[in-house]
Amino acid sequence: MSVDLREPSACVDRSGQSGEDRQGEVPQAFRMNRAAVPLVVGLSVATIAWLGDDAVHYVAVAAEETHTGLSIRRLPLVVNPRVEHWMQELQTARREELQFHLDQSGVFGGMIREKLRERSMPPELLYLAMIESGLSPVAESHVSAVGLWQFMDPTARELGLRVDDYVDERRDPVRATDAALDYLFWLRARYGSWYLAVAAYNAGPARVERVLELYADGRTGDEGIYWEVLRHLPRETREYVPRLIATALLAKDAEALGFRHSNLPAYAYEEVYVPAGTRLAVVARELDVPADVMRDLNPHLIRDMTPPREMYALRVPPGHVETLVASLGAGVSTRAD
């Protein structure tokens, strides 16, 4: 029997609305087409201008904070009764769950931390993906939020991810992480607070905007505002930031607290362009690797094959590119078993 070890907020409609309504909350300024998404987002106005004219001011301020070493680099790890509750919970009733998440961080943690470092964003945001999905690229909630970062279909498309009959980049740990971190950076730039940014990621920006207008006079720019308006946020969002802080604090001292170090191999691959309709099982056979290895490297190929009408960059285990290229050069068909 499978057990869902994800944080409850990853398993529900996080805005308390229908999926379609929640997707409408993604700010118009953030919407883009796929070609506009940079592969690596540098924190300067030049590289994030695609966010939209209304957002450039906020991003410019955030970029300046980054360059001067101010708060955008840091997620404050405040300890209060709510955080202490989660620290206790994660060491007792949910200890197995936290251990599972720490194990999974051995697979994707290095990749996510590197992308956070490239953007000068807090490394603790890795644990948001833990809460969202248990660091599983194939996690799917009952409202059809999918992947490491639990994107709904319309949100994913608005953030530049490909979602079609053959490719679902919400399941791509690399592309989905880029999209999630770009969006989180925009939210941090908008609110001037990581706590409010994380709350908006969970509940939706429109919900957080309404709460701030009603109970904080529209104020932003201070981490303390989150705690002021906490009781007015959706129930799951009230626990979201405390859970994130608690997880980050425990992970820093995981071994001292008796948690095992992850021995799972890191997500690593090389890419090779293959013909249209290439089947993963055929490639696995040519490379003499288990079919599950190819599936794990390409979880976004939802039919276990590349799209039927285009060359596609397939991920293969490191050191296997030459073998596959040689097979393709020898005329081996990859279209059928």
Would you write up a description of this structure?
With 337 residues, this protein is an all-alpha fold. The protein folds into 2 domains: 245 residues, Lysozyme; 60 residues, Membrane-bound Lytic Murein Transglycosylase D, Chain A (Roll), CATH 3.10.350. It is built from 15 helices and 2 strands. A two-stranded antiparallel ribbon has the order 1-2. Helix 8 crosses helix 9 and helix 9 packs across helix 10. The chain starts with 18 loop residues before the first helix and ends in an 8-residue tail after the last helix.
CATH architecture of the largest domain: Orthogonal Bundle
Element order, helices and strands?
HHHHHHHHHHHHEHHEH
Mean pLDDT over the residues:
84
- Proportion of helical residues: 40-55%
- The level 1 CATH classification of the largest domain is Mainly Alpha
Question: What's the main sheet like?
Answer: 2 strands, antiparallel
Secondary structure category:
mainly alpha
* Strand composition percent: under 5%
The gyration radius over C-alpha positions equals 21 Å
Cα end-to-end separation: 31 Å
Cross-sheet strand order for the largest sheet: 1-2
How many helical elements? 15
Which of globular, elongated, flat, extended, rod-shaped describes the shape? globular
Please tell me the total number of domains: 2
CATH topology (fold) name of the largest domain? Lysozyme
Given as residue ranges, the uncertain stretches (5+ residues, pLDDT < 50) are 1-24, 32-59, 66-70
Q: How many β-strands, per DSSP?
A: 2
